[in-house]
């Protein structure tokens, strides 16, 4: 009796940590894997809306939100292909007088989308490492910052190392 391999599709971006799988240099016994190299936003949307893939990378925050469904649609496995240093994902208006994370308390903070995983991490880092609770910055406004604001902003480093933006300023947090 012939055995057939399990046919699976994996939707994931082209990360250095997954490239060997994408290029078929790493194979899995008993599995014929089709790797779909998609940008993350497309993967997340298609998986969350249509459950198109057998396996996919998914936004951590979207996964957590999905756990509140009566029948959660996903099973999470602890593999994190996207690795970014989120401490460098905050930008501040250079004219706002913000020098330390505590200076964000009571300020209006803007973000492209409240649920973005990067923003969830940043809120957690600000809370856990710097005592800046999400409730202390009122309100958090989800918006696209105007061009004049982008021009007057700089990366805000939460670490001893220089800030290195990991996302475009339009997709990061802004303080006004």
What keyword list fits this structure?
176 residues; alpha/beta; five-stranded mixed sheet; 5 helices; 8 strands
Task: Explain how this protein is built.
This protein is α/β, with parallel strands linked by helices and 176 residues long. It has 2 domains: 6-66, no CATH class; 86-175. It contains 5 helices and 8 strands; from the N terminus they run βαβαβαββαβαββ. It has helices spanning 19-22, 40-50, 60-66, 117-130, 147-151; strands spanning 6-12, 31-37, 55-56, 90-93, 109-111, 140-142, 153-156, 173-175. Strands 6-5-8-4-7 form a 5-stranded mixed β-sheet. The longest helix is centred in the C-terminal third of the chain and has 14 residues, at 117-130. The chain is elongated. The model is unreliable at 159-176 (pLDDT under 50).
Helix count from the secondary structure assignment? 5
Mean pLDDT: 78
Binned, the helix content reads 10-25%
What is the string of helix and strand elements? Answer: EHEHEHEEHEHEE
Extract low-pLDDT stretches. 159-176
Major β-sheet annotation: 5 strands, mixed
Whole-angstrom Rg: 20 Å
Topology, element by element:
Blueprint: E1 6-12, H1 19-22, E2 31-37, H2 40-50, E3 55-56, H3 60-66, E4 90-93, E5 109-111, H4 117-130, E6 140-142, H5 147-151, E7 153-156, E8 173-175
A few lines on this structure:
This protein is an alpha/beta fold and 176 residues long.
């Amino acid at each position: 009796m012939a055995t057939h391999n399990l046919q699976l599709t994996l939707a994931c971006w082209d990360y250095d940590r997954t490239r060997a799988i994408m290029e078929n240099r790493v194979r899995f016994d008993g599995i014929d894997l089709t790797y779909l190299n998609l940008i993350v936003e497309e993967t997340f949307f298609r998986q969350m809306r249509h459950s198109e893939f057998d396996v996919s990378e998914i936004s951590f925050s979207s996964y957590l939100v999905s756990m509140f469904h009566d029948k959660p649609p996903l099973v999470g496995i602890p593999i994190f292909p996207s690795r970014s240093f989120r401490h460098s994902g905050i930008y501040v208006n250079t004219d706002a007088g913000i020098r330390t994370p505590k200076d964000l308390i009571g300020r209006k903070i803007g973000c492209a989308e409240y649920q973005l995983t990067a923003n969830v991490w940043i809120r957690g880092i600000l809370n856990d490492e710097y005592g800046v609770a999400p409730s202390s910055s009122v309100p958090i406004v989800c918006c696209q910052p105007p061009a004049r604001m982008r021009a007057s902003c700089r990366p805000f480093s939460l670490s001893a190392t220089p800030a290195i933006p990991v996302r475009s300023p339009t997709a990061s947090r802004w303080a006004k």
